[in-house]
Amino acid sequence: MLVFKFGGASVKDSKGVKNLLNIVSAYSENIIVVVSALGKTTNALEEILKLSYQDMAMSLNKLDDLKNYHSIILNDLFSDRNLKIFEEIEEEFSSLTKKLKSDYDSYDQKYDQIVSFGEIFSTKIVSAFLNQEQLSNSWIDIRKVFRTDDTYREAKIDFDHTEKESTKAFNFKDNRVFITQGFIGGSKKGLVTTLGREGSDYTAAVLANLLNAEKVVVWKDVEGILNADPQYFDTTEKLDKISYQEAVELAYFGAKVIHQKTLKPLHNKNIPLYVRSFINPEGKGTEIDCFKHYDQELPIFILKKDQMLISLLPKDLSFVLEDELSKIFKYLSEHRIKVNIIQNSAISISFCIDNANNKSKQLIEKLKEDYKVLYNDQLELLTIRHYSEEAINRITKDRKIYIEQRSRHTAHFVMK
Questions:
Q1: Tens-digit pLDDT profile for residues 213-236
Q2: How far, in Å, CA of 102 to CA of 192, rounded?
Q3: What is the distance, to the nearest Å, from the Cα of residue 149 to the centroid of all Cα atoms in its chain?
Q4: Distance between CA 54 and CA 71 in Å, rounded?
Q5: What is this structure's pTM?
Q6: Which CATH architecture has domain 300-415?
Q7: 2-220 belongs to which homologous superfamily?
């Protein structure tokens, strides 16, 4: 049994959905297909949700735009407007509108109820199209299979319950192909939960683990995992194979190809993960497996933009390292603020965090209660795995470096 995951970029239009059909049709094995929301639907739903708190009329206008986007894809894929899929999508958008106007206990709780619709739309459309094209499949509502706690936007899976439900839901005696959603689950209270942004990879990995898949294939718009993001670097090379450990390192430091949580359930059962191109499905891509050696010895560059460097100094020079670190990191943990790099001296501590939301401002105000706080924003964090002096000099030339750290295999630079 195989698990395929298709991201939003791979199904952004009717051409992408037809390409998914061609890829899945080329395999004779049993397959679970995990599909993300179409294109930029998740981003659109996030904007719609935010607007609903400010201007409901504008929010509903944006929702109409999203509905029209899905209608265009529907009309391209299905010539018969009387098919049930048109009615189903209409009903889902009506349900979304009602929930958008409803009150919930918190923003995060409402976020999960609203944003999760993207995967419902996409999987219903994909399933109906595959059935129309004689690729018989079953649509599975993963919200009834993945039992989670109620930590909205970062829900944790109840693996015992989920394993039992997965075994029942994905019964290959009934069908060879199943279509289901990534990113979402359901709590005991009956509310929808999400597993964190980019959580569709994680969904695929968990299903592979629980159902003992032969392998997982993540279909993307790149030939495999590259040694640098082509958005930021002119020259890139494909990594043919890397170890689980190497992939975890890359994910931790900010590489966007594989979600951080994805690798553990696969490593636990030695299930290989392939990153392959949906544009060139014949390509070999990148294999992540139990490799013990790093073959190519290519430097790998990971660039995180929009970073903030915060430096703390005690107001009275009475810095007690262990106690102060404990207090600082407890606050960071409570507010889910990830530290990307840290450096300390006898009377100061500096750390780099993502500056993508208002949490950094709130953090600074909180820290000012006890410390003198200095900060720099609009910085970049460059991580180089398997670095060389030539690679470092080439990338950091003419840049102002605030922090530099090196270990045996990894170098970090906070710079501007």
A1: 999 999 998 899 999 998 899 889
A2: 15
A3: 19
A4: 27
A5: 0.88
A6: 2-Layer Sandwich (3.30)
A7: Acetylglutamate kinase-like (3.40.1160.10)
